[in-house]
TrEMBL record, chain A:
The gene is accD. Pfam families: Carboxyl_trans, Zn_ribbon_ACC. This is Acetyl-coenzyme A carboxylase carboxyl transferase subunit beta. NCBIfam families: accD. It is found in: Cytoplasm. It catalyses: N(6)-carboxybiotinyl-L-lysyl-[protein] + acetyl-CoA = N(6)-biotinyl-L-lysyl-[protein] + malonyl-CoA. GO terms for molecular function: transferase activity. Acetyl-CoA carboxylase is a heterohexamer composed of biotin carboxyl carrier protein (AccB), biotin carboxylase (AccC) and two subunits each of ACCase subunit alpha (AccA) and ACCase subunit beta (AccD). Residues 23-282 form the CoA carboxyltransferase N-terminal domain. Its EC number is 2.1.3.15. It comes from Blastomonas marina.
From TrEMBL, chain B:
Pathway: Lipid metabolism; malonyl-CoA biosynthesis; malonyl-CoA from acetyl-CoA: step 1/1. PROSITE patterns: COA_CT_CTER. One of its GO terms (molecular function) is transferase activity. Its EC number is 2.1.3.15. This is Acetyl-coenzyme A carboxylase carboxyl transferase subunit alpha. The gene is accA. Its main location: cytoplasm. It catalyses: N(6)-carboxybiotinyl-L-lysyl-[protein] + acetyl-CoA = N(6)-biotinyl-L-lysyl-[protein] + malonyl-CoA. It is found in: Cytoplasm. Acetyl-CoA carboxylase is a heterohexamer composed of biotin carboxyl carrier protein (AccB), biotin carboxylase (AccC) and two subunits each of ACCase subunit alpha (AccA) and ACCase subunit beta (AccD).
């Protein structure tokens, strides 16, 4: 089955009633107006300029996994352990994010297969509070890895995050070593760990599990970095080079193995898994 | 003369009053009674102020230029320090210093951020903001420690890893991730102390240890209060609110299990009596290493893994 029909078959978004507001979508890169239906069916890659738009967890599962995958429950964590309040209380922000998103936090795992290769696939969703890493994301990552260890299958993570979830303060920072412990366990078990970097992957997520993969794939044009461009500019007061912190720039500087078009991602992962998957000693 | 922090103004006033009286004191005027009274008042005020510092005030104390830095800890706590330089790939980064040292009878690998103490040294040490090569040097030294059975001590004092073009180009994120991984993989005891500012990923990359100590007035957070405020409140002016909300003090972090032990500072902060502060830290480090020395590598790694896996869940 082609990725096109796979997307079409499992689009929860397709059921939405079409209105004048959502009939068209403006490509953020080339400003062309594209039919929303056409855009979604193209896995949110602009048919005019090939810009890779951000996609949600369910669409990501649909375009990468064989049919019949199992979405794993999001682990329960202590909510708002710091009783954090900025201009709004953290629980109110969470509630708002949950009302707008199909999953309870920013990282969701599914157990399934990619062209017959069994995997656990984690997907981080930028639409949920900027994909930010708090205890729920860290715990979901560890749970996904635990499932991969239990099933003796590779773990693939699609990263997307503006950084740490500030509302969880230091506990969000502690997710960096926490997720790194999980990555180490995969490595010790001899299981492949593949990172797919998507737009945007920055801050503490980049500086932990996103940069510890056996193979790093990035979607074209996606933003990948440690420090934010504004922070850098304020520190060094210099013009940033063209294409700074984009996938191609990271590839050029040796941090990403391959930049792969979204339409080819499923084939790419299947190929890598075929090479790397643990096999019975011959 | 000592530089006073904003909130220390009342103390500064008493100090200048004391200086005035002292210079007015002569053979025919005896003001010693009055001076003595002021000194008592000052001691009470200083103690009271420092017992009730707000998170934002602690941030100022943690950043105080007169606070002891890496070189002071080396001079006061350790013997025979042998700095080892370079990451073997690109450069020597003096924002992160490391090498061999003796802590009492014990030989250790010592790694830490150095902020510098005057303009020249601050520039040389890049204000304690490590670049990828600094973290890669730390990885190299941790690897060395593991192979030769030397415990690792890290002293964390950074506003954060350096945000710059060349740092991004050379893989700042990857270097930090690998440094964190190197901490977790150590087969030898590791003790980290947050001695000043524990700024985000640049700090955790050297602090993913089984025992984490923190000075009484140090701070440790995912982002600076100014950074947090400018994102969530849309203005850095709310930094005091952000500092409060983020729970970045040693007292708060001990409660939620992020650190294990608070090292007391002299009254009025480590910058008022650096040698005393160093002595307390040295004693605490020795005690910690003494306890950990009993454990084998499997147990040490398990402790570290457990610590971070259950973080925030207890
Ligand atoms: Zn376009």
């Amino acid at each position: 089955m082609s990725w096109l029909s796979r997307v079409r078959n499992s689009l929860p978004f397709g059921a939405k009633r079409e209105t004048a507001d959502n009939l068209w979508i403006k490509c953020p890169a080339c400003d062309e107006m594209v039919f929303t239906k056409e855009y979604d069916e193209n896995a949110r890659v602009c048919p005019k300029c090939d810009h890779h738009g951000r996609i949600g967890t369910d669409m990501r599962f649909a375009i990468l996994l064989d049919q019949g995958y199992e979405v794993l429950p999001t682990p329960q964590v202590r909510e708002d352990p710091l009783k954090f309040k900025d201009t709004k209380a953290y629980p109110a922000r969470l509630k708002q994010a949950r009302a707008k998103n199909p999953h309870p936090d920013a990282l969701t795992n599914a157990a399934g297969a990619i062209k017959g290769h069994r995997v656990v696939l984690g997907v981080q969703d930028f639409a949920f509070m900027g994909g930010s890493m708090g205890m729920a994301v860290g715990s979901a990552f560890v749970h996904g890895v635990d499932r991969a260890l239990k099933d003796r299958v590779p773990y693939v993570i699609c990263t997307a995050a503006g950084g740490a979830r500030m509302q969880e303060g230091i506990l969000s920072l502690m997710q960096m070593p926490k997720t790194t412990v999980a990555v180490r366990r995969l490595k010790e078990a001899g299981l492949p760990y593949i990172v797919v970097l998507t737009d945007p992957t920055t801050g503490g997520v980049t500086a932990s599990y996103a940069m510890l993969g056996d193979v790093h794939i990035a979607e074209p044009g996606c933003l990948i970095g440690f420090a934010g461009a504004r922070v850098i500019q304020n520190t060094i007061r210099e013009q940033l080079p063209d294409g700074f912190q984009r996938a191609e720039y990271l590839h050029e500087h040796g941090m990403v193995d391959r930049v792969v078009h979204r339409h080819e991602l499923r084939d790419e992962l299947a190929m890598l898994l075929d090479y790397l998957s643990p096999r019975a000693a011959a | 003369m000592a530089s006073y922090l904003e909130f220390e103004k009342p103390i500064a006033e008493i100090d200048s009053r004391i200086t005035e009286l002292e210079s007015a004191s002569g053979e025919d005027v005896d003001l010693s009674g009055e001076i003595e009274k002021l000194r008592e008042k000052r001691a009470t005020l200083l103690g009271g102020t420092y017992a009730r510092l707000s998170p934002w005030q602690k941030t100022q104390v943690a950043r105080h230029p007169g606070r002891p830095h890496f070189r002071d800890y080396v001079a006061n706590i350790f013997d025979d320090f042998v700095p080892l330089g370079g990451d073997r790939y690109f450069a020597e980064d003096e924002a992160i210093i490391g090498g061999l040292a003796k802590l009492g009878e014990r030989r250790v690998v010592l790694i830490g951020h150095e902020k510098g103490h005057d303009t020249e040294s601050r520039l040389r040490h890049n204000f304690g903001m490590g670049k990828p090569e600094g973290y890669r040097k730390a990885i190299r030294l941790m690897d060395l420690a593991g192979r030769f059975g030397l415990p690792v001590v890290t002293l964390v004092d950074t506003s954060g890893a350096f945000p710059g073009i060349e740092a991004e180009e050379r893989g700042q994120a990857e270097a930090i991730a690998r440094s964190t991984e190197a901490c977790l993989a150590l087969p030898v005891p590791m003790v980290s102390a947050i001695v000043g500012e524990g700024g985000s990923g640049g700090a955790v990359a050297l602090a993913s240890a089984e025992r984490v100590l923190m000075f009484e007035h140090a701070v440790y957070s995912v982002i600076s209060p100014e950074g947090c405020a400018s994102i969530l409140w849309r203005t850095a002016e709310n930094a005091p609110d952000a500092a409060e909300a983020m729970k970045m003090t040693a007292q708060d972090l001990l409660k939620i299990g992020v650190i294990d032990r608070i090292v007391a500072e002299p009254v009025g902060g480590a910058h008022r009596a650096p040698e005393k502060a160093c002595a307390s830290l040295g004693k605490a480090l020795e005690e910690e290493l003494e306890t950990l020395g009993e454990l084998d590598s499997t147990r040490l790694r398990a402790m570290r893994e457990e610590r971070f896996l259950r973080m925030g869940e207890g």
